[in-house]
Amino acid sequence: MQxxxxxxxxxxxxxALSTPWLAGCAASGKPEPGSASDTQAGFxxxxxxxxxxxxxxxxxxxxxxxxxxxxxxxxxxxxxAVEALRGPDTRMVDLQGRxxxxxxxxxxxxxxxxxxxxxxxxxLPPPDGPNASIAELQQTLREYIKTSPEAKQLGxxxxxxxxxxQLKERRHPTRDDLDAVSRTVPIAVIHQSGHFGSLxxxxxxxxxxxxDTPNPEGGVIRRKPGSKQPDGVLEENAFxxxxxxxxxxxSEEQSMEWLEKAQELxxxxxxxxxxxxxxxxxxxxxxxxxxxxxxxxxxxVSYPDITQxxxxxxxxxxxxxxxxxxxxxxxxxxxxxDGSPQGKTAWLTQPYLVPPKGQKSGYRGxxxxxxxxVNELVAKAVNNGWxxxxxxxxxxxxxxxxxxxxxxxxVEKTRAARPVLIHGQTLRRDQIPQLKDLGIFPxxxxxxxxxxGDWHRDSVLGDPRAQNISPTGWVLQQGMxxxxxxxxxxxxxxxxxxxxxxxxxVTRTGKVLGPEHRVSPWIALQAQxxxxxxxxxxxxxxxxxxxxxxxxxxILSDNPLTMERSRLATLEVLQTIKEGRxxxxxxx
Length: 588
What we know:
alpha/beta, disordered N terminus
């Protein structure tokens, strides 16, 4: 990725920029004596004009110009008024028809996981990777083992992003499939959902998993037919616990490098605020080191796993705050109640359309924790005033969350804590008024309509349940806001793919899934900017282009409000600007 530090004078700005559409025009003239811009401190550092500027502010949706001074927005409005802040060194940035919007605020993903994704073999299916069959996946892994410095450094080959629903064989790769790649190098491949993995024999041995290893609570070790021997595929907690056992301890510098690679991927898609959901203590410690060393380019808000808090020191230290220190803060805690609908481990009240391998008719998935434990953890968060993000894909898991929040204390206290339902893919219509009453904020996952919509309709849920996954239309009917996320590394952290799916809800085969849940591009953009900032208690300084807010900006190749909605997926992020400073520019 190309990075460029822009110069401060108008003349050198024009010279430094080799991208024609960003070329500035020279500043000229002096301010009137006694005017607001009569001192150098009053001048703008940069003024953007010449293209649509979408503020995400309903009271002033679009403006002609925007001025930046220091890290903040100094003015928005018509060009003549904004140019009152133009001084001799103000950079005049002509958008040349391109569109300026606020920086994207990530409402849910896993920064640490994206770091792993960035160094792992890309096992994603088309269009994000080449792996449409197990044979292609095996070839990708062979090339990775030959060429990857990380595989050699770690003594372990990681692959990320395989999807059994998109592989020709319609199954997970097994230990036998991975043994065909290597019997000596431990191999661990991670499902695109992040809720499954498959290990070869060397990795299973390294993890200490054999025929006598029992299933952990909330997880399954799949076995070979007619045998207790593991077939290599691990579900939920069986996979999570195993990954921790086989993962080598990284040096501090290796951790920093992974983190920086993850940041670059988010910046490529215009994210200026990134969430690290379900962070473990090691990930929190690493990010604090990065913050102290000045290596964070984006704001990172972390939500440690509430089941791994230990003595809870992080939640009582200086980083648990509504404000960032070195671009890092801890925003609350995360709790996971079930698994993945596309992997058929989400906890439903009604059976899956086609049960997964080894399960009988009537299978409904399963929860991770008993009700009593969930009630205890949610009450702990609410009573401490911690915002809690709760992963609930299946409607049974959502019922469990609602019951726990209701039991946690007075509704005024729960509303103040603003608990968040993460994913809510099978959110029922009758559950939405309950969310509203309790102050539970829904962060939904419409991007599933593209990646797994056909799978949901034909195998996971069937109609009409599949039509109503991530039911944004029902949420809006209740007068509620929502956010729309990518859950990276489940998918690439693509703001554009999120936008397209939230607006269009078109599956891989071109079918519309849930037309009543389509929303306008304006609403979809708000769900990725202003409403995401609100979810994080940051809408006073982020999410819209208003005077006094941070100059977190993104320049897009086209105007998402006026282009054909069917072409939204072709949008490109051309530049990402964090607090007035360019931190990413698309190579040309």
